[in-house]
Known about the structure:
Blueprint: H1 2-43, E1 70-79, E2 82-86, E3 93-96, E4 117-126, E5 129-133, H2 140-173, E6 179-189, E7 192-198, E8 201-206, H3 218-221, E9 227-236, E10 239-243, E11 258-259
Parallel strand pairs: 3-5
Antiparallel strand pairs: 1-2, 1-4, 2-3, 4-5, 6-7, 6-9, 7-8, 8-11, 9-10
Amino acid sequence: MIAQKLTSLYFLDRSLARPTxxxxxxxxxxxxxxxxxxxxxxxTEAPKPKRxxxxxxxxxxxxxxxxxxxxxxxxxxxxxxxxxxxFGAKNDGLVHISELQAGFVxxxxxxxxxxxxxxxxxxxxxxxxxxxTMKPPPTEEEIAQxxxxxxxxxxxxxxxxxxxxxxxxxxxxLKKGAVLEGCEVKSIQNYGIFVEIAEGVEGLVHISELxxxxxxxxxxxxxxxxxxxxxxxxVDGSKVKLxxxxxxxxxxxxxxxxxx
Length: 260
């Protein structure tokens, strides 16, 4: 009887203890989850505030930007290839390193620095990009001089062209063995003399064709301004072969170029 009561008390005690253990375990898990949630909330970074840039003051309208127009601006930044300048337009312009000044520039920092006030001119505009220059544009006098120089070069080329045409015409009319008298000596060189065989057309008589004598120097044969007689040894385009020898020896003649 006593043993039966003890067994009943044993099972009753276990049944009473079981809910307590379950409740304790549930309480422990809930505390762990709370701690993990707290740590996660602590380690999560707050969102960074958006960076605000100062609003740019636009003083130059897009319609006012024209090639060649002058403005005053301030250098905002520099790079290895140039400097960006704020001259009041919506977009900053770039002064390439080659446009900082006349002549070669090795380092941009040698010419300009950030926040420096500079005078610039609009060089070109393309798809919102503005190219600037710090080289002053040419004056009216300089433009006129450039035009005059270009005209002079053009005329010189035309004169050269006409001269070459005339040389070809003169050479084409010459025949092998023709004797040309009264040719003026224009210059004397160590290798021969230049004589004018027609107006504005000079030919070279090589030193080997100056005389039948051996070892003759050009200065011993004629002087500048002398009138001499030459023979045509042959014609090849604008090249004319000349000789001052009394006896014509075509086999030993040298090619003489018509000089301009």
